[in-house]
Design brief:
The chain is an alpha/beta fold. It contains 9 helices and 11 strands. It has one domain: SGNH hydrolase (Rossmann fold). Helices cover about 35% and strands about 15% of the residues. The strands form 4 sheets. Strands 4-1-7-10-11 form a 5-stranded parallel β-sheet, sandwiched between helices. Strands 2-3 form a two-stranded antiparallel sheet.
Amino acid sequence: MLRRMSLLLTTACLALALAPPAQAAPSEVYVALGDSAAAGPLVPNQIHLGCLRSDRDYPRLTAQAIGAATFRDVTCSGADTKDMYQPQSTELGDVAPQLDALSADTTLVTVQIGANDVGLTGFIEDCLNLLPPPIGDACNDDYVVDGKDKWRVDTDALRPRLLTLVSDIRARAPRARIFMVGYGTYAPQNGCYPRVPIIKADANYIRATLMYFNQMLAEQAAAAGVGFIDLQTPSVGHDPCASAGARWIEPYVPASPAAPFHPNAAGMRGFAGVVTAAVTGAVTGAVTGAAR
């Protein structure tokens, strides 16, 4: 549903140099755009069943923390970049294009999108392996076509669409500070087979693929002159292999209410803290400020 690290940190710090720190204001008009990683499918309480959106997703918790005067959350599970521009079909009917939530008075935008464009959640689930080798097969070599890694090819193909998206957000919300949000840690080094049934080689492949994807997001944010918020680094140790009390992202069989390989309520609180610090300019590390 959700449709290498030094370089990431370097890129993020470059983006920080592009603009002065952001400051949240009491009159903040905040619009949250994104997919299920932002919406919080199955996290109580669900307030939009079509989009599987939680009233405790990180955008809403961020809005509360900064005291936003106006908050519009249009994050929707299953969304990809096309759904920024056109109605998105859900099980309970169509929802409006997400960019329609923007207006001339919007002052803050977070956007977490792109995973569904390249099919990252399906990719993780494809690598589930109930039987270890030699009975079960590794998945990582299934995605090399003509000597090229399919996921990296698809990730790179997304780059221009993200630049266009930022440009279109600016056109609709010229006053807004814009932050592109990355994705969390879905697999630690070497995984934790059989607790999460993804073998070591595949866990490392998933980890490297997500790192490359987040690196791409950071690079495109820097190229567009907007902020990038790194959720991968702060979620290390809170991945699906962590204990039930420590994890922010649930495994294939969740122990807390959440969709598989999606943030749970604790994850949404953790990510909200990261996002809040970023949008208020309280971050000095890999999370960047934003430019208009």
